[in-house]
Amino acid sequence: MPKQIFTSREFLLTGAIVLLLAIIATRFPAFIAPSNLANVFNDTAPLILLAIGQMIVILTRCIDLSVAANLALTGMVVSMINVAVPGLPVPIIIFVSVAFGALLGMVNGILVWKLEIPPIVVTLGTMTIFRGTIFLLSEGKWINAHEFSEPFKAFPRTELLGLPLMSWIAIAAVILFSVVMSRTTLGRAFYAAGGNPHAATYAGIDVGRTQFWAFTISGALAGLTGYLWVSRFAVAFVDLAGGFELSVVAACVIGGVAIMGGIGSVVGAMLGALFLGIISNALPVVNISPFWQLAISGSAIIIAVALNAQANREKGRIILKRAENAT
Amino acid sequence: MLMETDQKSAPTGAEPKVPVLALREVTKTFPGVTALSEVSLELFPGKVTALVGENGAGKSTVVKIMTGIYQPNGGQIEIDGSPVRFPTAQDAGDVGVTAIHQETVLFDELSVAENVFLGHAPRGRFGLIDTSAMMDHSREILDGIGASIDPRTKLKDLGIANKHLVAIARALSIDARVVIMDEPTAALSQKEIEELYELVEELKAQGKAILFISHKFDEIFRIADSYTVFRDGALVGNGAIADVTEAELVKMMVGRDVSQIFPNRERNTGDEIFSVDGYEHPTEFADISFTLRRGEILGFYGLVGAGRSEFMQALFGITRPSSGKVTIDGEDAIIRSPADAVGKGIVYVPEDRGRQGAITTLPIFQNVTLPSLDRTSKNGFLRLAEEFKLAREYTERLDLRAASLDTDVGNLSGGNQQKVVIAKWLATQPKVIILDEPTKGIDIGSKAAVHEFMAELAAQGLAVIMISSEIPEVLGMSDRVIVMREGRIATEVTGEDMTPETLVRHAAGI
């Protein structure tokens, strides 16, 4: 058992993050001060939230490219609600953002489940539709800081035990979904449906319905993040978080989520997101051009995928060896 | 390819002495299984050799060795008497060995001409493919075999018979010397079969050596010159077709030493627990009715493609039958999904454990409990202690040896993966268990354990349906056998009537 822990992807990734922090510390020691690390975590919270949802979707052999557009659309919707009804309490806003995001996710899920359209096509389509809808709703106009109500903007920054609520929400989501994935029948169904859809079908699991729930969860988290994003930056517009879906997929891949499905964990997705978050926060302070950031993130993705592929290949060799030994 | 061939086409007319292609004591083993042991086979120009044997006798393996897909572990391949090796399929193709498969291996989205000339298309200027030459040559070849197919048609728009003709045209286009036909008539109508026979005659006349694999005795006697019989991966007989009778061939195919011992079990069957009435499917099977009693093992025998698995999948709710009724314990059962079937106490242990059996990315215990999560969870929350208990109980009963129930199934051997799959289904406490080729591809030791276990299941009052293509297994384990042919029940036999000959006759329709 201890051996398993030390060779697990999560352990290796934690090691990689520690190494990364150590390298950064040699040039800029203040980066690893607890207060700065807390800031980095808070900055990365939206990526963590989306990566958890994406991880579940990828686990079921799908992909959700519409998360950033969902985030932007839900963000615009709750912003407009806030502008129209400034007195509406924040908990209701949060509820609306989660429900609306989930609804958008369900649209993806239904198309994948009932019409059996490939997920990459479905979410590429809904991604564009969601962005277009924002334009229709907002007529292309921005909603700016002064138009939001104070409580709406204050929520994610409110501190509790020294951390902003934004961070607490990410932590809560990691814990909640770790439990869902390892302790509920739905979580088991996600792993089974992605690990071997045929076998899962024979075991009585409806693979399509399982994928539907994965998209719903991904959508709900994207919706929640939509509110957090617009309130934190106090702005909503059509291209909000444009291209962010690729960072989300990247976080999952770096976090050890197998792109062919069946393998992945919530903690892995979080670590993958943190890895990217640290890079994007550290590069400016150590005076590396932000353009390098893209190259470094890209290299990290390829290295992660190569390592995963390597791990799987070695596993195959072991099977053959054992089969030979068994006879 | 390690050999030079200076003459491309074999002499016709002359008395053939040297085989075009010969296998000499070829052996092929896979981890845990010996697929072929020291088999020899000779193919002569202008002659048709029929290769016969049960499912799993090693016929497909031989084809794959001849066409460079598998490498033999022992023995050698000879072309015109000189040893050669085929490290890749291309090498086999280069010396003129070509195979026309059961399910033709062609490309649906490409045109007929492109399929015929794939890999050796005529080149024009700048090394680009000369499309018009390719079309013309294709048309010539197709005309030559009497096929009226437009070479520009996409392959997917052709029927199966025409696809076969394209495959044959392809064989001719590469100047094949050896043509392997793997059950070419399996999907053809009577008229198309007649046309195929004529084509075979023509290929013979052109001096091609033909290996004809078939389960149908009438066609073997009609077109073959000689025969070779395989059983359990070994050569059991060969000679001229004129010197053998149908009965002798059947005997060679199925007769075997009593090396396999099946568990002795008391055959006391109980009340009727399960019945199927008039199951139909628009394309796969029709008119399937039978009953099953507690403690009974019902064997389903038939050739590959007889519709056994397709029927069982409909029974299990994977596909929908167009009509038919199922009763369990005297009550009508409506099965619309696998979950319904499992809920009613029917389980299906599929044949292809790689694709449909175990989830290799999950640990043993999670595989075992997957269909039983209703019992090991509460309000959607898993109870791990219950899961481990259930998994331990059933893996121990199957004598599964693994370091820990936390081990990923992907790390287990084939036999142990099979045990995980069986444990998974037993843990659902089924009333009826359908085992599809339960011992296919596993070693003798594991086989015996599975047989032992099947007997135990029946003794505990479970009704067992076993699909098997191995005659000794069917006869050794079953109380009753249903033989299927072409999607229908050909016959149902019990007691004295359960002989290898009856099964083979009904399965092949002779």
UniProtKB/TrEMBL annotation, chain A:
Superkingdom, natural source: Bacteria
Pfam families with a match to the protein in the record: BPD_transp_2
Primary location: membrane
Keywords: Cell membrane, Membrane, Transmembrane, Transmembrane helix
Entry's localization field: Cell membrane
Ranges annotated as spanning the membrane: 12-32, 44-60, 67-85, 91-113, 120-140, 160-180, 212-230, 236-259, 266-285, 291-311
Topology relative to the membrane: Multi-pass membrane protein
Assigned GO CC terms: plasma membrane
GO molecular function, one term: transmembrane transporter activity
PANTHER family given in the database record: ABC TRANSPORTER PERMEASE PROTEIN YPHD-RELATED-RELATED, RIBOSE IMPORT PERMEASE PROTEIN RBSC
The protein, known as: Rhamnose ABC transporter membrane protein
